[in-house]
Amino acid sequence: MSGFNEDTVEYAALDWLGEAGWDTAFGPDIEPDGPHPERSSLGETILTKRLREALERLNPQLPASALEVALTKVLRVPGPDLTTRNRTMHRLLVDGVDVEYRDASGAIRGAKAALIDFENPANNHLLAVNQFTIIEDSHNRRPDVILFVNGLPLAVIEFKAPGLGDEWEHHAHNQIGTYKEEIPSLFTANAAVVLSDGVVAKIGSLTAGTEWFKTWRTPGGSVNGLKELIEGVLTPAALLELLRTFTVFEDDGGGAPVKKLAGYHQYYAVQEALASTVAATGAGESGAEPVPVPVIPLEFAAGAFGDGQTLIADDVEWATVDLGRSVEPGMFLARVTGKSMEPRIPDGSLCLFRAPATTARARVATWWWSCVTPWTPRRALGTR
Predict the structure, then answer these.
(1) Measuring CA to CA, which residue among 305, 354, 365 is closest to residue 329?
(2) Coil/strand/helix, residue 246
(3) Buried b (16+ CB within 10 A) or exposed e, 17-43
(4) What is the structure's pLDDT at 161?
(5) Which of 2, 108, 123, 272 is 20 to 30 A distant from 262 in Cα terms?
(6) Exposed e or buried b per residue across 194-214, where buried means at least 16 C-beta atoms within 10 angstroms of its C-beta
(7) Quick one: CA dihedral 46, 57, 83, 204, positive or negative?
(8) Angle formed by the axes of helices 226-233 and 6-20, to 10°?
(9) Which of 11, 10, 54, 42 is nearest to 152 (CA)?
(10) Does 239 or 252 have the greater pLDDT score?
(11) Where are the alpha helices (DSSP H) in 167-307?
């Protein structure tokens, strides 16, 4: 394996990330003294210019003052420890940042400032950077590859040289641990951590121990290498889907939050169940008129990932709900079971979800649309 080292793996990964839809850059090139600077200091772990541009582009309805408030909140996420800050940031990434502003009449308005365009992943700034030097509290570290979405570092990839045998994963995981201790600001917005020796690749969460880092297979079940992991879960669409739909926080039993990501088998099982839901509800069909909402006899696990479920179209009942707006095709009601990381969703709530049409990459995703209080359908419309 002459010539096959960490650098070889790193540059192969950048090529594959480029093919998956990421722009790529060499870390020193975007440093303050580099030819294309994007940082004012090596202590910055967020590419602020990209974030500000994304806020302006994704929130044209909000005044500049509100967007500056949103930017400040993202740059100064509060919390006594890294995991708590990461959990707070997760909600900002998924739900948007709460801001207030005065409208033309002088009235104070509340709004959400979006940080990411989940509907159209290509509408985000997507950048994979290698050798990104960070200096924090006198600690000088240089992670191998970081994936930035709108200037926010959502994923960190750590490589170890082939030839370490079974020890490579522990070395890589220990290196991530060192980063969390010495340059914690890199992980405030982190959605995933990837470890690889170029042959095997595994993905896990910010809080996962070595045993919880898992390989990722493609839908066809091919080998679980680095290229397969990039193609399966590190495309911009897949990473954002993992962030929004397949990430939960749980209590470890002692009051500390633990972050969990779905494994590939759970990811594909949920997609299969949702595909059945789409088929049964006609999700993705066009039409501007309001439609009745189907009550789907599926249970969406809160705080955990459920197994795939089979949906029988004849079991679907229909109900109307009062949203204060038109109901869109593809929306449906389903029950959420278990303790949710969202305190407004009590166990057993009947919540409104939306399943969009299949994407260009044949992925189907769903997310809760509204679940402030448990839904009580006004009237059943019968079965179909």
Answers:
(1) 354
(2) coil
(3) beebbbebbebeebbeeeeeebbeebe
(4) 80
(5) 123
(6) bbbbbebbbbbbbbbeeeebb
(7) negative
(8) 30
(9) 54
(10) 239
(11) 168-182, 226-233, 236-245, 264-281
Summarised one tens digit per residue, pLDDT across range 48-57 is: 999 999 999 9
The Cα 222–Cα 78 span in angstroms is: 42
- The backbone torsions φ and ψ at residue 75, rounded to the nearest 5 degrees and listed phi first, read -75, -20
Say if CB 321 and CB 293 are below 8 A apart. Answer: yes
What's the sign of the alpha-carbon dihedral 220, 224, 225, 229?
Answer: positive
First CA to last CA distance, the chain: 61
d(CA 270, CA 278): 12
Chain centroid to CA 95: how far?
Answer: 11
Cα separations in angstroms, 195 against 67, 198, 221, 237: 35, 9, 20, 20
pTM above 0.85, yes or no: no
Which tens digit of pLDDT belongs to each residue from 290-336?
446 777 766 655 544 444 555 555 556 766 665 544 556 666 777 76
Scanning the structure block, which residue is given the tokens 């930017």?
71
